[in-house]
Amino acid sequence: MMTLELLKERLKAEKGRDLLAKLYGHSPEIIEKQIDRYVQAVESYYRFFPQEESKGFYMFSTPGRTEIGGNHTDHNAGRVLAAGISLDAIAVAAPSSDNVIRVYSEGYPQPFVVELDSLAPRKEEEGTTSALIRGIAKRMRELGYRIGGFNAYITSDVMGGSGLSSSACIEVLLSSIINYLYNDGRIDEILLAKIGQYAENVYFNKPCGLMDQIACAVGGFVTIDFKDFDNPIVRKISFDFAAQNYSLLVINTGGSHADLTDDYASVPREMKAVASALGKKVCREITMEDVIQNIPRLRKQVGDRAILRAMHFLAEDQRVVRQVEALERGDFDEFLRLVNESGDSSWKWLQNCYTNKEPHEQGITLALSVTENFLKGSGKGAYRVHGGGFAGTVLVFMPNELLDGYVELMESIFGKGSVTVLSIRPYGTLCINLRI
């Protein structure tokens, strides 16, 4: 366990600064900011749990994630390429002896409290952090792992609604706390991700796939093949993004996700309708040739947009394979070209850049168009819709020599703070005590 003075000492030492640089970026200002953030988190923990001040604690960090390739492919048993990012949630935690989990989270005045004697789902907790805590504890116990009470304070800079998976990040973080406090870190990252998904599906009552949790748990570039939904094939890609002199940006274009449920649901539904018309369950089981040869019949059965979305899936699923191959051979220019190709397909074939309910609101398409114009003639950079689409965010790979001008331009359009500059984080969920 760590003490506050020991944490300060280790973070400021060469090994600690090196770890912070890998997690958050190499700028001395960023490293100092993170040291202050960690110290403030511990001070907040002691403020909420003053009885713990003379005792030690554990420090945890779990990244948010970004989807880089495989836009709307996972739900049809396809492949994706994702990555852990430099925005994260951190927790200060220590075991308690009363079989109760108490979690204070920055921005919430009251703690989330779960008594481990009763772990059945509670309707009134749906949509809350308490539901996630209870679901994680229940699933770990079911799988034969130890659980126990703990006190924790959490702070996160993974913005909610940003498409960076703030909920999955918290799920993996909470799972990691129990993993290290009570199971000596024996639970592997993929199982931690599955435990988080279970809690979100069954207790939080939100249907979700597994991509977000896996990317948060594993970190770095990670490719996932969902051909077998229950046992996805996960592979981490070794690639030094920091050496490319590029930044990863997320642009928040505004717009609410509140009325987009039908838009999101229509994508897997229409893709599966094409597969069904061809005698299969999901698009992973059909080919582009199958679709092209049957277009006259498919137009009558499922409509043109469904055909286009199935065509997007088939091209995008293979594009992920090529993106991974480009990264593994160190061909960053080809990788960026494929990111642009993915964005073009999402815009024209998948059609998830704006909702037909509000065609006058097209923040994503506007951001993409302005970015395309900004990079025109440079032969550099890449951009695409980020995540589910229809409203929200755009993902951009921007060369650092163009970064300041681009940020200034986009914030003049979408508002101060609308651009978040990121880097790819090589590590997934961590117990910081074991890294420094």
Largest sheet: 8 strands, mixed
Radius of gyration: 22 Å
* Class from helix and strand fractions: alpha+beta
The domain count comes to 2
Sketch the topology as an H/E string, one letter per element: HHHEEEEHEHHHEEEHHHHHHEEHEE
Span between termini: 12 Å
Average per-residue pLDDT, rounded, comes to 94
User: Low-confidence segments, ≥5 residues, pLDDT <50?
Assistant: none
Could you explain the architecture of this structure?
The chain is α+β, with helices and mostly antiparallel strands. It has two domains: 4-237 and 426-434, Ribosomal Protein S5, domain 2, CATH 3.30.230; 243-422, Alpha-Beta Plaits (2-Layer Sandwich). The protein contains 14 helices and twelve strands. The chain has helices spanning 4-12, 14-24, 28-48, 129-142, 166-183, 189-203, 211-218, 261-277, 288-293, 295-301, 304-328, 332-350, 363-375, 403-414, and strands spanning 58-69, 79-95, 100-105, 112-115, 150-156, 221-225, 233-237, 246-252, 382-385, 393-399, 419-422, 430-431. The strands form two sheets. Strands 1, 2, 3, 4, 5, 6, 7 and 12 form an eight-stranded mixed sheet that branches. Helix 4 crosses helix 6 (189-203). The longest helix is centred in the last third of the chain and has 25 residues, at 304-328. The radius of gyration is 22 Å and the shape is globular. 48% of the residues are buried.
